[in-house]
């Protein structure tokens, strides 16, 4: 494949995979996203690095796991020594622009309204920038779902519409250059603002009840039971779960969510139309940051769980120059792989700091390039006491089996081939001991390889791991220094003061 020097990265917020029609859900009206899949490649097993807004973005736009960025929870900005891909690509002579929700500056939900170095300030448009265009009354209206039914919502009032306009302006004026353009929508995240006709189209729609809704959490981690509102020792049986799920699926919030989902699809369509007009040879990448629970496992929103409802996100790529169309890729891939993939396609050297793997060869040949993908969780938001507080989680998935280590509670193992709704926790099942331990070993190695600051003997010393090594204070005994020579001097060896030769070595 030739280098592709024009890339448009389109992202939504809180869009489940089953909210996109082409993923086998025709009741969801997303014709423009579906068209991308028909003309490109659809990844069925793409996963968020962490199912929370800011950490998910940290992984996407730095090429690092959230644990290495400093931004492993909402409202906690990435570190000063962490370079985002806009800065890295700019330094290689590529024009980069970021339009839309950023969420990486350590500010509140809306951001600080300041363009980070590396992105074109003329097109910077985070959510604070949008709010500062509005009167106080309009700001309040923009955060209230009732606005849809009271004064009404015009397309031009929405954040998504204004993001699209800026993206189109960039394509019109800069299509002749090498560029990397991000279009990051807040939609379909609440407050679900879109003209009322969109939500009216889903007035009769009900969220389907699945086996996941019937999960009584009897053999699940304690923090999930607390999240689900269960009292100590309480178990809700199937009929109670069915009633809860059915009522949850009738909520007006779902009607508004799905309406906004179709609205943002149309906005994506406007961007794609501009791409076809001004930069038809550009690579288009579309994804979402994470999903949201619709009552599955008794849970709501998103948080410290690794169930597919919130981690398995849509991912589609399209490029006019690719010969094959309508490809479905079922190999496990991660958001952490997108930064090296973008650099690889653009012909830019892939930094040592990136921990993912380029998917270019997998896209070219259809052959799997990764044995597994990893996910994590730390905290929902540093500002809030709620949402379960700190819940340190690490997970690994090989395409069939998913192992989840919940450091503060108990662990999980699922066979997604036989149990796609992840109801039956196999962590104590000796039949799966070899599979479980192999995944566990791989997860420990990934934590060490990526300099996870939370790594240590306690991840290995789990109750079900009877052959674990005796815990030691020195753990592996290695030091793992950082290699970021594009932006920092090579780190020095503590014992000699000289430049390190091997970044990973005995301490």
UniProtKB/TrEMBL annotation:
Domain of life of the source: Bacteria
TM region positions: none
Keywords noted in UniProt: Hydrolase, Metal-binding
GO CC annotations, alphabetized: cytoplasm
One Pfam family, short name: Sulfatase
Gene3D superfamilies: Alkaline Phosphatase, subunit A
Sulfatase N-terminal domain mapped to chain residues: 6-348
Molecular-function annotations in GO: metal ion binding; sulfuric ester hydrolase activity
Protein name: Sulfatase-like hydrolase/transferase
Lineage: Bacteria, Bacillati, Bacillota, Clostridia, Lachnospirales
